[in-house]
Design a protein that fits this description.
mainly alpha
Length: 74
């Protein structure tokens, strides 16, 4: 009987511990997901993107859509 009680108490303690760990993991994942969304939104602003990324100055001249009526670049 004593062995069964020890197993049950261990299982209960493990369930409590794993529930707490799961909450921490879920909260951490949500925080990082929100940060990812915020940073990706900030990268849509050219001024901020210029200061955040190293590759932006290496991209070259941006493509400019043709302004004449024929659809050709001048």
């Amino acid at each position: 009987m004593s062995r069964d009680r020890e197993n049950k108490s261990y299982e209960q303690l493990f369930i409590l511990f794993s529930a707490k760990v799961e909450k921490v993991i879920i909260r951490t994942t949500l925080v990082f997901f929100v940060l990812l969304i915020c940073v990706q939104a900030m990268l849509q602003i050219p001024y901020i993107r210029k200061h955040f990324t190293r590759v932006e100055p290496l991209e070259g001249k941006p493509y400019i859509w043709p302004q004449n009526g024929k659809g050709e670049r001048t």
